[in-house]
Amino acid sequence: MPLRIEDVHATEILDSRARPTLAVTLRTADAGTVRAAVPSGASTGSREAVELRDGDQRRYGGQGVRRAVAHVNGEIADALRGRTFRSTADLDAALIELDGTPTKSRLGANALVGVSIAAVRADAAARGQELWQRVAELSGAVPLLPVPHFNVVNGGVHAANNLDFQEFMLAPLGAAGLAEAVRAGAEVYARLKARLTAAGHSVGLGDEGGFAPAIDRPEEVLRLLVEAITDAGYSPGRDGISIALDPAASEFWSDGRYHVAGEDLTSDQLIDRYTEMADRFPVWSIEDGLAEVDWEGWERLTARLGERVQLVGDDIFVTNPAVIAEAVGRKVGNSALIKVNQVGTVTETLEAVRVCREAGYTQMVSHRSGETEDTFIADLVIGAGCGQLKSGAPARGERIAKYNRLIETADAHQALPFGLTPRG
Ligand code: PGA
Ligand code: ZN
Prior knowledge:
This protein has helices at residues 66-80, 88-99, 109-126, 131-139, 178-198, 218-231, 267-280, 295-305, 321-329, 340-343, 346-359, 376-383, 397-412, and strands at residues 3-14, 20-28, 32-37, 84-85, 147-154, 167-171, 242-246, 253-254, 257-260, 263-265, 283-287, 310-313, 335-338, 362-366, 388-390. It is of the alpha/beta class and 424 residues long. An eight-stranded mixed barrel has the order 5-6-7-11-12-13-14-15, surrounded by five helices. The protein starts with a strand and ends in a 12-residue tail after the last helix. Helix 5 packs across helix 6 (218-231) and helix 9 (321-329) packs parallel to helix 11. A hairpin with a 5-residue loop joins strand 1 and strand 2. The longest helix has 21 residues, at 178-198. It contains 13 helices and 15 strands. It binds 2-phosphoglycolic acid and zinc ion. The site of 2-phosphoglycolic acid (PGA) has 11 residues, from loops. Zinc ion binds at residues 246, 248, 287-288, 314, 337.
């Protein structure tokens, strides 16, 4: 079924951090009008597709997106209006060609990704399909409800505390189903709040809805998490609830050293520290354990821990199929974070997933720290069969919207399998 575009329009709206982003509406002959809103990161990889910001200090401290909006309403609308595309892949190819740069820096990846997501939504609607069903066809994957990864303690550039590691996530690997997994996350979140309060810590929240206590040692957070898991009546570990970390190490790397809780560590010292954490705590996954520039360190990290811990590349891979292929060749990591706006179109995102699948790398679909109420990633993770989604804490509307989309889909489609793989 071809995609017959009637019109496309963008508006400058706000994201969850009160920074401007884009909402895109797309009108097609067969699906009426659909909408997409664009997320935005804070701890970004240097090789990410370029998010175009105005730089005009008189508006939003230079963070406005009027230029990207103007590109959608001008050049992109002119190129799409009245045109028929055989597929959303063809439409994405036309966007990439129109932009003409390798990093989407001319029109802006934030402009392109809004149009690209809206196009898949229109395509699904025109076919009378759920969005995830269309994504499954596009990706050739077996649809799967993912294990949610709840980021319940925030640090790094997502919070004003002195915790260097950015994310501490609960991964209910042992849950019987999606609804039970979400319940587990919410119950432990509540017990963690009680523990933090009892210990005299602040329970103010970071950008992704996790608590942001003034704790600097990551091991202290891990200890609290294990206690909260136990308090809530779950067992810490793969049969119950495991822990996933995203230190986002590029953010505390400088001059060849990693600066963690007042210590200056070499790559190998930090790898030792991760090994100890994996020995002492139920840590099943570590994302961006080392900096995006530290490929040699990543090789050693993977050789040391790759058999027992999921090692996810985010800033280092930037959802880029070519970079992931390079990583596979160098035995760097064993998993990739999947963020649509890191690469700029849905087609390229699904290509990144395919490269992972063929290489035996797992995939975790991800929100950004700046989000909107758009739930596209929930359908993406189901349809692309990735098995893991991180969308922040079980708190804050823009985070919860994705988890609720999963819950409602699980309820409406009881035959959908749940877990890291279709076999659980
Ligand atoms: P970001 O953080 O959205 O601020 O880039 C998310 C992450 O690092 O995974
Ligand atoms: Zn990350």
